[in-house]
Structure formats: C-alpha cells, structure tokens
Amino acid sequence: MVSHKRIAHPDDPATALVRSIAMDIAKEVVAYVERQYPQAVSATSSTFRLSLRNCIYSEIIAALNVTDEAEILARLSRRRKERRRLKAMVDVIRDTDWEAALAAAREGK
Fold this sequence. Notes:
By secondary structure, the chain is mostly helical. The protein has helices at 13-36, 38-42, 48-65, 69-95, 98-108. Helix 1 crosses helix 3 (48-65).
C-alpha cells in the first residue's frame, strides 16, 4: 500500500538538525516544567504544554536566524524592554480592583 502522506525533506540537513535540536530543547523544558510544577501545569489549559513548546522552539529559531552582532545586541535589548513593559502591564491588570472599576464606570453613565 502506498502512503499519500507528504513528508518534508529538508533542503539543508544542517538546518534540519538545528530545528531538531531546538525542538528537543523545547520538549525538555516542557518536561522540566511538568516535573517541577505539576500543580501549576494541571491548572492550565489543555494546550499549555503545546503552546510553551512551540513558543520556546520559535524563540530559538528566531534567535539563530540573527547572525550580525549588532542585530543580536539590538534584539536582546528590545526583548528585555518588551519583557519589562509586558510585566508592568500584567502587574497593573492584576492589581486593579475590577469590581470598583466596574462600579465607577456604571456610576459615570
């Protein structure tokens, strides 16, 4: 019987190897999180592990695609700033008293 599944054949074996390494790292991090923080993982959605794995894989591949030193330094700086900005936004969201905000919004109408 002939299989009709498409099989991806990499053009560059070195690229395929790097992608395999990135995926292995991503899977290992997910396994680590599962072992170290089982209650946290059980409290997440069913797609958390897949999302975490794919995020790590994508970040590794994106980092490897930048080869110029100035671009690497700029990327690191930009990502550091983005993490700080996102953390600040999450902190504001977590610290907001949403019941009071809703009540104030209703009174203003």
